[in-house]
Design a protein that fits this description.
Elements: H1 35-42, H2 53-66, E1 86-89, E2 94-97, E3 110-115, E4 130-139, H3 148-157, E5 165-167, H4 169-181, E6 185-195, E7 198-207, E8 213-217, H5 224-232, H6 241-257, E9 262-270, E10 274-281, E11 283-291, H7 305-309, H8 322-334, E12 338-347, E13 353-362, E14 367-375, E15 387-398, E16 403-412, E17 416-424, E18 435-446, E19 459-475, E20 478-493, E21 498-499, E22 516-528, E23 536-545, E24 555-568, E25 571-584, E26 592-594, E27 609-611, E28 613-626, E29 629-639, H9 651-654, E30 660-670, E31 677-684, E32 689-695
Parallel strand pairs: 4-7, 8-10, 11-13
Antiparallel strand pairs: 1-2, 2-3, 3-6, 4-5, 6-7, 9-10, 12-13, 14-15, 15-16, 16-17, 17-18, 18-19, 19-20, 20-21, 20-22, 22-23, 23-24, 24-25, 25-28, 26-27, 28-29, 29-30, 30-31, 31-32
Helix pairs in contact: 3-4, 5-6
Domain POTRA: 282-363
InterPro entries: Bac_surfAg_D15, D15-like, POTRA
GO cellular component, one term: chloroplast outer membrane
């Protein structure tokens, strides 16, 4: 342990006698609980956790609350040979004269003592009372206590025992317990002394030792500083059992707050005032997997056990944490191939360890065919404006390794995307959770930069793309991606013929050919918050064109997005900022388009402007309406920072786009399995209104 200037703690390496009857003064009724008892008590229901965390936390709390409380130490009574005349008979003690007169503290009186009666002497209704003339507190030998503060503590604990009061033995017993309950004394014995002035009641007490050192055993995860701070105030003072109980509760509370299976299982005062603290922690002994069908019967799993086990942060030899276990269950469910996951802890034989069993119900099929539809915000005209259909063939658990293969086709009014994507979420043999994704894509999408052709002719940008990306988390909530992507792009009219200029004679390619070739090195960094309304998000992307061949494009493009939430009572304020810049020889259709559902609302897509640079800001205030529906008030602003004329052919200028603009409005949002469904109406700075519909949070 680190050295403290004001407190001395005994090193844990001290040779100590084993806990037992001969090892020094024992208190708390030998509070020795074996680790097996700890585990058995914690595991008592023997049910699947299913990670209803509040339920399990309550069970742990009940365990620590209900385990046997120690006695407040030993209340001892001295017995002397009885004399002929009986002075007091009660339900539990009898007062009798001593055989020979014993001197009191002054040496001038006779002493009598309290004695346990026989069962026949007990009366159920009435108890005799004895008039007490004096009440003293002495040490166990009958001498005056050296420390007056301890004498005051004992006297202050007395309630019934007062001078010139008539007491029953029950009254005396209760006061004995009150003295013990004060926490400063290891034993207390009531003695009655017959004096000239009457009967003197003497409480002979044995104070606890002074705290001189601490030995803590079995605390592998409990910080030593936490233990030292808990005991620091008591160093050099008489040990107080009530204070020790508070310390034990604080240590047990430390384990409970972190969901750890641990508790104080024993405490003892050794000779010399050294306190031995015994802590029991339930370590993970083994983790096994059991596959179940939907009826709960064992079955053969399709996923390899090693694929599941490497997802767990709970490892063999660790103290089991319910919080960590819950995170592991959430991680397994996010793999997308599990229908249900539960964890069952069980005692591991006679050791202080536990075995974990993962009950896993896999999804019925790892692969299949899906179809659906959606809306593309880039298409704003025509009878089927923005509508797209999609179908896909997929497998989510190739080779039992959670590898995913997806072949999909999306088709809209004029746009289409055909994509083949293979993803390995965790490359085998890698310890840093590195993922790999290989993608081949052929797409035709409208261009927002060169839209709104006066001759009503439309054209699309065709892209043939192939690439590989590697991603991994490098800090909590931070993920990074590196990749290399080859792309060939070119413009085509509605008949599929290549086009190199638009209606205004603005070039559609950077090279002047029917297509542009580029090899992009990609870097992406993303920070994702907790997902709560007040959390944050940040993303940074950079694409660098590498001119492997002279005609291949050489440029650099960066963009960043940030979002911050602030909870204001029932309402929530969100501020979003985004921006980007491009340098070098880049395709004009890759300029930043400003305006639309995810940019400046109140404008059509790309109607504010397009440039080499852009900056867009948004402020929103959302508030609950009813159930999953909430209202929102918003204001947006975007600008190309005067870079519109630097785009080859100045496509924004010839279309008389303003280059900057703002919008404001209100809307409603409905929480759904697909994400927030947004329906908004906004006015722009030209006082024109427009509806917007979107899925998901605004980018």
């Amino acid at each position: 342990m680190p050295r403290n200037d004001d407190v001395r703690f005994t090193s844990c390496s001290i040779k100590l006698p084993p806990l037992g009857h001969n090892s020094s003064i024992t208190f708390f009724s030998k509070l020795q609980f074996t680790s097996q008892f700890l585990i058995n008590s914690l595991m008592k229901p023997q049910k699947s956790l299913n990670f209803n965390f509040n339920l399990k936390k309550n069970s742990i709390t009940n365990f620590f609350t209900n385990f046997p409380k120690p006695l407040n130490l030993l209340s001892s009574f001295r017995f002397h040979p009885p004399l002929k005349s009986s002075l007091l008979c009660s339900a539990s003690l009898a007062l009798s004269d001593g055989g020979n007169a014993e001197s009191d503290l002054s040496g001038s009186t006779n002493q009598t003592v309290l004695k346990s009666p026989s069962q026949s002497q007990i009366t159920s209704r009435d108890e005799e009372r004895v008039l007490i003339s004096e009440v003293w507190v002495t040490n166990k030998d009958g001498d005056e206590l050296e420390r007056k503060d301890l004498e005051s503590e004992a006297k202050n604990a007395l309630k019934a025992s007062r001078p010139n009061s008539a007491l029953t033995v029950r009254d005396v017993q209760e006061d004995v317990h009150r003295i013990i309950a004060s926490g400063y004394f290891a034993s207390c014995m009531p003695v009655a002394v017959d004096t000239r002035d009457g009967i003197r009641l003497v409480f002979q007490v044995e104070p606890n030792q002074e705290f001189q050192g601490l030995v803590c055993e079995g605390a592998n995860v409990l910080p030593s500083k936490f233990i030292e701070d808990a005991f620091r105030d008591g160093y050099g003072k008489v040990v107080n059992i009530r204070r020790l109980d508070e310390v034990i509760n604080s240590i047990n509370g430390w384990y409970m707050e972190r969901g750890l299976f641990g508790m104080v299982s024993g405490i003892e005062i050794l000779s010399g005032g050294v306190i031995r603290l015994q802590v029991s922690e339930a370590e993970v002994n083994n983790v096994t997997i059991r596959f179940l069908d939907r009826t709960g019967e064992p079955t053969v799993g399709k996923t390899r056990p090693e694929t599941i086990l490497r997802q767990l942060t709970t490892k063999k030899g660790q103290v089991y944490s319910m919080l960590q276990g819950k995170r592991d269950v959430d991680t397994l469910l996010t793999m997308g191939i599990m229908e249900d996951v539960s964890i069952i802890p069980q005692p591991a034989g006679d050791s202080n360890k536990i075995d974990l069993t993962l009950n896993i119900v896999e999804r019925k099929s790892g692969g299949g065919i899906s179809a659906g539809g959606g809306i593309s915000s880039g298409i704003t005209s025509g009878p089927l404006a923005g509508l797209i259909g999609s179908c896909a063939i997929y497998h989510k658990n190739l080779f039992g390794k959670n590898q995913k293969l997806n072949v999909s086709l999306e088709r809209g009014q004029i746009d289409s995307i055909f994509r083949i994507n293979y993803t390995d979420p965790w490359i085998e043999g890698d310890d840093t959770r590195t993922s790999r994704s290989i993608m081949i894509q052929n797409s035709r999408t409208p261009t927002l930069v060169h839209g709104n052709q006066p001759d009503s002719n439309s054209f699309t940008i065709g892209r043939v793309t192939a690439g590989i990306e590697y991603g991994r988390p490098f800090r909590p909530k931070w993920n990074g991606t590196l990749g290399v992507i080859f792309q060939r792009t070119g413009a085509h009219d509605d008949k599929g013929n290549p086009v190199i200029r638009d209606f205004y004679s603005s070039p559609l390619t950077a090279s002047g050919n029917t297509h542009d070739d580029m090899l992009l090195a990609k870097l992406e960094t993303v920070y994702t918050g907790s997902g709560d309304p007040g959390s944050s998000m940040f993303a940074f992307n950079m694409d660098q064109g590498i001119p492997v061949w002279p005609e291949w494009l050489f440029f650099n493009r960066v963009n960043a997005r940030a979002r911050k939430g602030l909870v204001l009572g029932l309402a929530c304020f969100h501020l979003s900022l985004s921006g980007g810049h491009v340098v070098g020889n880049f395709p004009p259709h890759e300029a930043f388009a400003i305006g639309g559902t995810n940019s400046v609302r109140g404008y059509e897509e790309g109607a504010v402007g397009s440039g080499r640079s852009c900056a867009v800001g948004c402020g929103e205030v959302s508030f609950p309406l009813t159930g999953p529906v909430e209202g929102v008030i918003f204001a947006d602003y975007g600008t190309d920072l005067g870079s519109g004329t630097t785009v080859p052919g100045d496509p924004a200028g010839v279309r008389r786009k303003p280059g900057s603009g703002y919008g404001y409005g209100l809307g409603i949002r409905v929480d759904s399995p697909l994400g927030p469904l947004r329906l908004e109406y906004a006015f722009n700075d030209q006082r024109k209104g427009r509806f917007h519909f979107g899925v998901g949070l605004r980018n």
